[in-house]
Amino acid sequence: MKLESSVPPPAHRLRNFGVNLWAEFSSLAVEHKATNIGQGFPDFVVPEFLQEEVRKAVAKPSANWYTRAQGHPRLVKELATEFSPLFNRNIDPMTEVMTAVGAYEAIYAAITAFINEGDEAVVIEPHFDCYAGDMELS
What we know:
- By secondary structure, this protein is mainly alpha-helical.
- The protein has six helices and no strands.
């Protein structure tokens, strides 16, 4: 039996998507030996004290467990405490706060949670490059 080593084609719903803007900027920055200030690529070594704190934190067995999908309880409680005064109300950390890995994930989660097929959404320019694609997928 012969095994194929090809990558499956992307889903049809993705056919209208082009090159990611940030991937294009990154390639151009490398090609022209320019500083890429678009994504925040650090060009320095993290200070030793911070490296040591990270080593200590990941050495704890509980630091390597999965947490709840909406965010670590201690983190969402701190965020609720910080933002409640700004909204002049108590924010429930366990039902009203969610963390994400990054902006793309957070935006995608928000759009897919609230935009239905056929809905109209107003997007003000300039906007983050993923808004249109996320809405199209929703």
